[in-house]
Amino acid sequence: MGEGEEITMGKIAAGYGSEWHLLRFLGRHREFLDSKVIEKTGGLKIDWLDFAFSKESVANDQELTGIEFIDAQPVIDAWRGFWPSTGSAQNWDAVGILSAGGAREWLLVEAKAHLGEIASSCGASAKGGLEKIEKALKETKHALGVSANADWLNGYYQYANRLACLHFLCSNGIRARLVMIYFVGDERKSGECPTSNDGWSEALRSQDSKLGLQAGHYLEERVHKVFINVDGT
Fold it and tell me: Nearest Cα to 176, choosing from 51, 90, 56?
């Protein structure tokens, strides 16, 4: 879902939108969803984490944020030095654990249903940890071989900060994958909703180009694009 700095869960749209469809597939078509994700990521099964209840949100639920699903104290301490504790951290649409033999890996999920959802800019202020965010993005760009001049704060900030979180986890010994789910065939009245996988292609190429991402970067095999038609075809 889209964000400025970050937007907490709001009222779920009835019958359309990425949040609606993701909940549909998690609740009613989980085997289908799991097969699509496993096809891209490998593994044998996925265990999805529950969200907490929250009276502060319209939906009465609270998305998992940042790395709050991690219980290793050294990693938690390192995260506090990497990402600001003020403002909001990354809001995940879903978090799961991928099992493959004896290995277990975190799955961090973002879902999109229309092209406008991939656009976002950072709304953090100096008091809201902007300097720390810029430092984290700079470190991530360097690790991915991206020019330091690439603007990761404006245009596609959400995707950029998700990559930063993935980089942080992997560089701290936590096995994780970023799963970007792109729904096809949504019926939102406003916003351009792709009717095929190719309908996402140009926008995603523009995103990667703007961020300066090149093929072969070290996280490439841990970032997965999963296209799901809302009618299950």
Answer: 90
pTM for this model (two decimals): 0.92
Question: For a pLDDT cut of 90, what percent of the chain falls above it?
Answer: 81
Q: Where do the structural domains in the chain lie, given as residue ranges?
A: 18-229
Show the tokens assigned to 164.
């930063």
H helical segments located in 42-156: 73-82, 130-143
Residue 66: enclosing H or E segment and its boundaries? none
pLDDT at 60: 63
* Long-range own/partner contacts, residues 53-56 (CB < 8 A, 24 or more apart): 56/8
Cα gap 33→36, rounded to integer Å: 5
Alpha-helical segments (H) within the chain: 18-28, 30-41, 73-82, 130-143, 157-171, 198-211
Q: Is 120 helix (H, G, I), strand (E, B) or coil?
A: strand
